[in-house]
Design a protein that fits this description.
The protein has 470 residues and is of the alpha/beta class. 40% of the residues lie in helices and 16% in strands. It is built from 15 helices and 11 strands. Strands 2-3-4-1-5-6-7 form a 7-stranded mixed β-sheet, sandwiched between helices. Strands 8, 9, 10 and 11 form a 4-stranded antiparallel β-sheet that branches. Bound molecules: guanosine-5'-diphosphate and magnesium ion. Magnesium ion (MG) binds next to helix 2.
Amino acid sequence: MVLSTLAEGVTDALDTLRDAGAGLVSDRVIRLGVTGLARAGKTVFITSLVANLMDRGRMPGLVAAQEGRIETAFLQPQPDDTVPRFDYETHIDALTGPNPHWPDSTRAVSELRLSLRVRPSGLLSGLQGARTVHLDIVDYPGEWLLDLALLDKDYDGWSAEVLARIEKRELAQPFLQMARDIDGAAVLDEPIAKALAAKFTEYLRAARSAGFYDCTPGRFLLPGDLEGSPVLTFAPLPSGEAQRRSLRREMVRRFEAYKAQVVKPFFRDHFARIDRQVVLIDALGAIHKGPQAVEDMRRAMADILSAFRPGRNAFLSQLLLGRRVEKILFAATKADHLHHAQHPQLTAIMEALTRDARDRAQFAGAETYAMALAALRATTEDTITHEGDDLGVVRGRLLDTGKPAAFYPGALPSDPAHLLAPARAGADAWLDQDYKVMKFAPAPLDLRQGDGPPHLRLDRAAQFLLGDRL
Ligand SMILES: Nc1nc2c(ncn2[C@@H]2O[C@H](COP(=O)(O)OP(=O)(O)O)[C@@H](O)[C@H]2O)c(=O)[nH]1
Ligand SMILES: [Mg+2]
């Protein structure tokens, strides 16, 4: 009696010791960056990923979940006190509540910590107890990432490049007209600087809604609390003299201030600490908008990849000191707009774009992977007969009217080159096909105990991003 109590006491003490040891040695942190342009699907992705990591019934593709090694997953206070918390509770209520709707759009950095208790696999499984892995998810606008390229440029170089790139764009004409008419050598007149910056911002907004990605400086579109401040009150001008007190001289100064006070702090405080990255892309949306939007998406992917290339930029190399992002996932979102028969085509397009971006960015670094997914599946599949052919369609409730509808976006080519080649050649429209989009509302859910919200391949995305660390 006495002996067995003593033995129990010893075992308890050993357990406590082992737990403490595990806590010290193997508590691990994965910092997952989630980015993409506005409306790419970041908020929905993070919300559904977290929900599906807490209730893992729909995550068979995540090996640790499939093997039953994830004991629990729970939200914890995040480590960074000055970064807004990702508002998971509000977003999950929006998506899965009785009257489901898409979450409101967010416009800045936010962060969330999900902690997982995971039992080790293989040989170690019998020897070690469960350990804790902290997943710190950082949501940040892709627009800010593209700003990295500005660090390598001075005002004149940047101006020349932007003006040349947008010269032929219809949308840019009002701004270009103004930039040509303004005398940059004249003494700075703040209302003129403001009007010029406002026209440029107007152009950037229009360009972004037309599907262009090259909409930097990124903070012009998502200014947050910098709205109206001098760091956001500049624009590119044709080259010329920059005398003291001239408009152009002040533009040079503000461009440099933007780099030092807006771009660098973002890279230092957020970007430099990321281990794994997912880049979300509304590829179907770009295809619908046409060849120019697709071409632009291709370039943007290369620009994004080059931000992750070690040694690419002196400032970054110094920040990172040899640390680097280990894995980058390019994911086409909203794949639930497409019958699964067409998913291989969408995946092939993403793979071709990713391969191309790697070549363009001369990228040798992290492991990259491309896929198509839906973080929250809002449709079901059906087959209808159209002019004698079977057509794979998706069905859902329309966002604006709430009415049920069947949707077929158009046939994606099985060879991605059929889309990417005309895009690269500068075509204005697709030759023989129109691609449509439709917006669906999230479907009302009746979740079984243990199941997260329905998705497509979110489990595989999670396996690529985190699987090796669980
Ligand atoms: N059908 C469908 N629509 C989605 C999905 N993810 C995002 N969306 C749509 O895209 C919009 C923007 O998503 P959001 O996550 O707010 O984008 P963010 O601006 O990148 O955070 C949403 O309001 C939805 O209309 C998805 O998995 N399926
Ligand atoms: Mg968002």
